[in-house]
Amino acid sequence: MRAALIQLNTGNEVLPAVDAAEALIREAASGGADFVTTPETTHLMEMNRKVVMDKVFYQDEDPGLARFRELAAELGVWLHIGSLITKVAEDRLANRAHLIAPSGEIAASYDKMHMFDVDLGGGEVYRESTLYKPGTEAHVVKTPIGTFGISVCYDLRFPYLYRAMADAGANIMLIPAAFTKPTGEAHWHTLQRARAIETGSFVLAAAQTGHHATGRDTYGHSLGISPWGEVLVDGGTAVGVSYCDIDLAKVAEARQKIPSLTHTRTFDLKVSEVS
Predict the structure, then answer these.
(1) CA nearest 42: which of 76, 79, 78?
(2) Range of the domain at 239
(3) Does residue 123 carry a pLDDT above 70?
(4) Catalytic pick from 40, 133, 181, 244?
(5) Which of 2, 11, 76, 180 has the greatest CB tally within 10 Å of its CB?
(6) Cβ(153)–Cβ(195) below 8 Å
(7) Is 40 assigned a catalytic role?
(8) Residue 116's pLDDT is what?
(9) Residue 268 lies in a domain
C-alpha cells in the first residue's frame, strides 16, 4: 500500500479549505496513493468560539464531508479525513474523524476522546472541553488494505488507547493532528515513534502546519513511522503531500522480535508512604 499524508495550513472558512484539501488529495492519488490521510480540523481552523458555531455543520449537512465522499469514490482511494469540526447540538461540537471507503461510503467515524485543556504559558491557553463533546468509544477498522486504529491529536499522549487498539488487531495507527509549535518541538517525534514501537504498528500522522488565519501556529512534520520506530517520511513545514510505502509484513516482523503485546501481566498496585 502507498499512503499519502496531506499537510495543510487550514484557514477559517470551510469551502476554501475544502478546495485546498481537494487539490492535494488529487495530487496524492495521481502519485499512486491507495490511502490518503489529512490532518485534524481539515476544513476549519477557527479559534473564535463566538463565531465557530456559525461556520460549522451537522454531519448530514456538511458540504465538505459530502465533497470528500465524492472525491474518494471518483479517485477510488481510501480517504481518511483526520477530523472535521462537526456540530452535534446548537451549543456543542465534536472533533470527528472519518474513514471513507473507495465507494464513497463512510466506513467509520470517531470522535476525539481526550480534550486538550492546557495552559502552555505566554497566554497560550486551550480549553476544548468547554465547547467540544468528547467521544466515548475507540474504533478499530478492518479493511482490505490494513486494520486501522483511529485517533486524533491529543489522544497521542495516552498510550493505553493504542495498546487497546493493537490488542484488538490494529496494525496501522492514524494520529492526525494540529499540534502547537511549542509542544511539537518538544514532543511530536518522540511520542509518535513511541506509539509505533510500543504497539509494533505503522503510524501515519498527517499534520497542520504554519501560521493560521486565526493567529495559531502549528508544528507540521507529518510523519510516517515503521513498526520498528523508524521515521519513513517527515513532511517538514511546507504544505504538500508526503508518501509512505506500507509493507504490513513489517508489523509481524517487529512484533515477533519484541513480543511485548503478548507479555501483558495483571498486577495489584501497592502504594506506600514513608516518613
Answers:
(1) 79
(2) 2-262
(3) no
(4) 40
(5) 180
(6) no
(7) yes
(8) 80
(9) no
Which pLDDT belongs to residue 130?
81
Catalytic residue among 87, 128, 153, 244: 153
Establish whether 153 is a catalytic residue: yes
87, 112, 133, 181: the catalytic one is: 112
Q: Which helix (H) or strand (E) holds 144?
A: none
What integer pLDDT is reported at residue 121 of this predicted model? 73
Could you tell me the three cell numbers for 168? 484488538
Question: How many other CB atoms are there within 10 angstroms of residue 145's CB atom?
Answer: 15
CATH (domain of 143): 3.60.110.10
User: Under DSSP, is residue 254 helix (H, G, I), strand (E, B) or coil?
Assistant: helix
Question: Does any domain span residue 271?
Answer: no
Specify the number of domains making up the chain. Answer: 1
Tens of pLDDT, residue by residue over 233-271, are: 999 999 999 999 999 999 999 999 999 999 999 999 999
- pTM for this structure? 0.95
Locate cell 480540523: which residue?
41
Lowest mean pLDDT among 52-61, 127-136, 173-182: 127-136
Question: What average pLDDT does range 59-76 have in this prediction?
Answer: 98
Question: What does the pLDDT read at residue 252?
Answer: 97
Band (pLDDT 50/70/90 cuts) for residue 122 is confident
Domain assignment of residue 272, yes or no: no
Asked if residue 179 belongs to a domain, the reply is: yes
Backbone angles phi, psi at 61, to 5 degrees: -110, 0
Cell numbers linked to 230: 523508524
Residue 46: phi, psi to the nearest 5? -125, 115
d(CA 142, CA 136): 20
